[in-house]
């Protein structure tokens, strides 16, 4: 009996030790992949910024040249002014819209919310093309501009406002939805009117959301490439200048410096947001009563009017681009045609670019969902390799502070380096998939980590006590419970890969052109209707994938894990 007990103990110890080693191997493998996909490319930007064109050490000379360049400093000032203007336009609109959704009983709030989020399905070039059709040289509403050109500051500002509105709304609406009804009851008991309650309860409660939304909008505008490329005209911004320096002039050191300048506002925004998060108090405590608005005819009517007005403007910008893709010759011949969808007759890669985007989106969704799930799982549910898990968490949060354009620059400098053995990946679909996953990793990781955090840790403890390997618990318990979140992540990654432009503009090749990039090529060649058609395809495809009922279909098989059946 004693010998049998010893053998069982040794076998159990070997099994536990083997599981720990396998978990540590998984942690360090994922950390190594993120180091390769994020850490080294960003490090190479810094290295390129302090070298000369022939590879020698330049110190701070490149920074000095950029700071003494009137054109680049003017572009930096233009980017700053544009970001501040768009923030001033978007934040009040997003706040009013979010207030209408969460603080009223207006009819159709769910529909209005979907309309407000529809710009997420379109590339940033879509509003720019629509503005050209409305207010351009042959625009349908050109007379309303008083002779002013849509190409320039205000054209870019309007396009960026459309592009960034849903991002601000998501943050602000979430902040407004988290309100304690007891505060409003106390305010009414003390004689505070509606205005005073708004100023002393609503605004302070939404302060963190407003600041976070402002930081997100500011960063998105500074680093966006698509809208300024189409509507900028002579109004240069830093994002376009970075593209010109790297692709146009092949001046990699100066492009690296401009990339670091684009990284600066994103990093500052990240640290400001983290500092505010530490000071932010929970809006809903355990004793809180969730605020639920009652029916008030005047307030609900005003909210409906506000929601309808903003939604109409968003639908107009989205709808004009879609409609123009079917119109024969805007605005002189409004008969319908499918001629603009014959992409093989125009520049940009033809239908191959669209199918490449489908491949990119599918591969990013499938591979990204697997990697993100494993990364979040080892961070949240495993105890092996503490140092590796800390490194993995750091890289999981890093993309939040790195704009896509900067990440794309890093991929140029790192993967295109002649001495890099991975140089063969440059310009290929594999590298674009890696870049897309790295670009959107943070949001996906936080989504899965939140789902894992809701799963009781006793599952792993019981499994360990029963000598059940962690991969069996992962397959039978953790994965089924987290499947809805995983499907959301897959859809998010697919749509993001279909619509993104800035991160991939530097690393595509003619053989692997993408739909979003082909829009710029078509627009530059004067084929604006074809560009609108390609943008429409992206919107329809993204919308179709977003509407798939995969979660409902698959979720029925796993409801018993959630106690729903």
From TrEMBL:
Keywords: Membrane, Transmembrane, Transmembrane helix, Transport. One of its GO terms (cellular component) is plasma membrane. InterPro entries: AminoethylPonate_ABC_perm-1, MetI-like, MetI-like_sf. It holds the Pfam family BPD_transp_1. Its main location: membrane. Coiled coil: none annotated. GO terms for biological process: transmembrane transport. Residues 76-273, 354-549 form the ABC transmembrane type-1 domain. NCBIfam families: PhnU2. This is Phosphonate ABC transporter permease. It comes from Chromobacterium sphagni.
